[in-house]
Amino acid sequence: MTYETLLVERHGPVGWLVLNRPEALNAMNTRMRDELADAWRELDEDPQVRVIVQTGAGRAFQTGADLREVATDGQGMGRYEDDLLAFDLHFTSWHQKVRKPVIAAVNGVCAGGGLHFVADADIVIAAADAEFFDPHVSVGQVTAIEVIGLAKKIPFGAVMRMALVGAHERMSADRAHELGLVSEIVEPARLREAAQELAEKIARNSPAALAATKKSLEAALELGLTDACKVGSQYLVGLWGHPDQVEGPLAFVEKRAPNWAPE
C-alpha cells in the first residue's frame, strides 16, 4: 500500500512502521490515524514479517493528536467521540490484535497519545535522549487510556505523577529504564540498528510459539494470578501437535537451525 504519513518497510524478517510527519513531530492527524490501522494489518498479515518495529522519523517518536488540526478544522476533539465510546482505537497494535511481537524504538520526544504505542508494545527500547511526558491536562484534556495502559507495566505512582504534572516535567530515558518502561537504552545513532538486531533475535524463534506466548502474557495483564495461569495453560497445550513442537527439539538435538512452520 501507499501511505502519506507513514513509511512501511521490510528488512529481512523485520517489518518497520515509521511515523513520517517529522515537520509536525509525528503528531497524529486524521490521515495518520486511519493509515496506522492499515499498516498494522499489512505487516501482521505478511508471512515474511516475523517481528514489527515502530519508530518515528526526525527528532520525535510521536507527540499525540495533531493539536493544530484539532484547533482549526471545526471538529475539535469530537472527531474521536464515537471511536472512544465504542472503544475502537484502531490506530494501535493492541486494538488491531497484532499477533506478531512489536518493538517500540523511541527516538526523541514521546508525548501524550504517543504513550499508546509505548504502552501497547511488547518491548520498548529508547535512544539516550528520549523523553516521555503527558501534556493532556496542560491543554485542557483528560488523560486516560494511555496512562491506564502504562499503569499495568510500571509503578502507579510514577504514572499518576506523569498524568498530573502534564507538560511541565519530562521523564528521561534513564528514569524510564529505572521504572522498567524501557528495557534498553542506546545511543541515538544506533537506535534503529539496535532495534533491528533485537528483532532478528526474536525472529529466530517459532512464529507460532511467539504468537501464543504473546497472547498468554497479555492475558496476565487482564486477569488475576490463578486465572492468568489457567489461560496460559490453555495456550501452552493449544500448541501441542503443531509441527514446531517436533521441529524445535529435533533441531536442538541435530545442532542446526530449526525450520519453523508458518504460524
TrEMBL record:
Instruction: List the SUPFAM superfamilies.
Output: ClpP/crotonase (SSF52096)
UniProt xrefs under CDD domains: crotonase-like
Q: Which GO terms describe its molecular function?
A: catalytic activity
Q: Which Pfam families match?
A: ECH_1 (PF00378)
Q: Which family does it belong to?
A: Belongs to the enoyl-CoA hydratase/isomerase family.
From the Swiss-Prot or TrEMBL record, give the protein name.
Enoyl-CoA hydratase
